[in-house]
Amino acid sequence: MTGKQRESLAKYLYDISKINFTVLVLGQIISQKFILWIFITGMVSTIIFLIFGYLLEQEEEK
User: Fold this and answer.
1) What is the DSSP string of 2-60?
2) For residue 3, how far is the Cα from the chain centroid?
């Protein structure tokens, strides 16, 4: 994978993380019917996408 592809994939993962956080986490906070398992799943998947994006950026710098 080229450096530009890694950079693009890292940006994509960050964007997925932002969308995931907005829809699943903030959506649960704003909604009138709070569902805990959706909130927890949203937080965990947001963190996973952030970590993968961060790791891709770190590999690019080496």
Assistant:
1) -HHHHHHHHHHHHHHHHHHIIIIIIHHHHSSS--HHHHHHHHHHHHHHHHHHHHHHHHH
2) 21
Rounded CA separation 25/40 (Å) = 8
Residue type, 34: F
Q: How many CB atoms neighbour CB 36 within 10 A?
A: 8
Distance of CA 38 to the CA centre of its chain: 15
**How distant, in Å, are the alpha carbons of 15, 21, 58, 59 from that of 30?**
21, 12, 35, 37
pTM: 0.84
Share of the chain above pLDDT 90, in %: 71
pLDDT > 80? residue 62: no
